[in-house]
Amino acid sequence: MDNPNTPLTLSRRSLLWGGMGALAAGMILPATSTRAAIHGTGNTLLSSARDNSGRDHAVAWSEDLGILWKTLLPGRAHGPAVSPDGTRAFLPARRPGNWATALNLTKGTIAASVECQPGRHFFGHAVYTADGRHILTTENAFDHGEGRIGIRDAHSYAWIGEFPSFGTEPHELAWMPDQRTLVVANGGILTSPESGRAKLNLGMTDPSLTYIDSKTGTLLEKRTLPAALRAVSLRHLAVAPDGTVIVACQYQGAATDRAPLVLLHRRGRNLVFPALPDAVVTGLRQYCGSALFSPDGAYYVVTSPIGGIAILGTTNIPGTVRTIQLPDVCGAAVLNGNLVLTNGFGQIMGGAFDDFDPEPRSEPLKWDNHAIAFSSPYT
């Protein structure tokens, strides 16, 4: 059983290194952050992508100039994280990779190559703390089948410590508006590097949404699904300015089942699966990719690369939902205040949240699953 009082695990380096004693005492974070850091807005898109020869790159792209730079990666990355000042990025490998690449975004160069601690692998997502001093990553303690949140110095990339995710297979994590509380989507699927991407506990999955105090590593709130929905794996999430969390899910049950895949939550309340039209539920094909809110929280977006659709909904009650057709669409970001979608055919589609009707643009790349915007001085 998860112990909500499980302490932080800290390396000896973190206790001896100048300034890290504050972290051991529970002082990871400052109290404030910029809006861009919270919502990932900016004028330049960052994503991993594969070229026509099969090599993987980190790519910066702008509406005016197209590809600004691309930097070769050791393999396929997943969800990029950007520092609050927009000068650095951290790209973990997709599961079950044990490497990550740190980038200098002003130059488009590699700042460092990072490896997991022994007995750990990345789950593909990370966040910077609001002061830019630390990077937190979702990881698997695969000898125990337990989720961990790793802590690294954001400048030296040294491992500092970790705390539990209070669930199995933590995938995406994000900051709540207080910039102290982390919300984590625990997919509930047991995996091991020895088995690659094989799912080892289908039929016994235990997905959950957890809220964790990042200063102490203690569990604040945990929500699980009813037994009938345990095959709904919680994967990707986003947080609105008012603290509403949206989760994009993937279903691990029978292909003929009609499972809910979009989940909303507010702290202290029950999980809610918003009612979606039957055609939308069918169109998602039991698989959602990215989740996103507009900067004002008035709109939400969930993508489905298998269904080839993105759903764009309003958060007001009763709300409206429209479907955007784009083959293999998965990446979603806020670029210059507008919604941008990317797909595995190199296409980029952008437009206003309240009037989304653009023509796709193309690059000679296969965009990977996730994208984030940052402010570049070159655009």
Key phrases:
globular; 379 residues; five-stranded mixed sheet; mainly beta; five-stranded antiparallel sheet; 4 helices; 45% strand; disordered N terminus
What's the gist of this structure?
This protein has helices at residues 12-16, 21-24, 35-39, 278-283; strands spanning 9-10, 41-42, 44-50, 56-62, 66-72, 81-82, 88-92, 99-104, 109-115, 120-128, 134-141, 146-153, 159-164, 170-175, 181-186, 208-213, 218-224, 232-239, 245-251, 262-265, 291-293, 299-304, 309-314, 321-325, 329-335, 338-343, 347-351, 361-362, 366-374.
Could you give a short account of the major beta sheet? 5 strands, antiparallel
**Helix and strand composition category:** mainly beta
How many strands appear in the DSSP assignment? 29
**Cα radius of gyration in angstroms:** 19 Å
Helical stretch tally: 4
Give me the side-by-side strand order of the main sheet: 1-13-12-11-10
* Outline type: globular
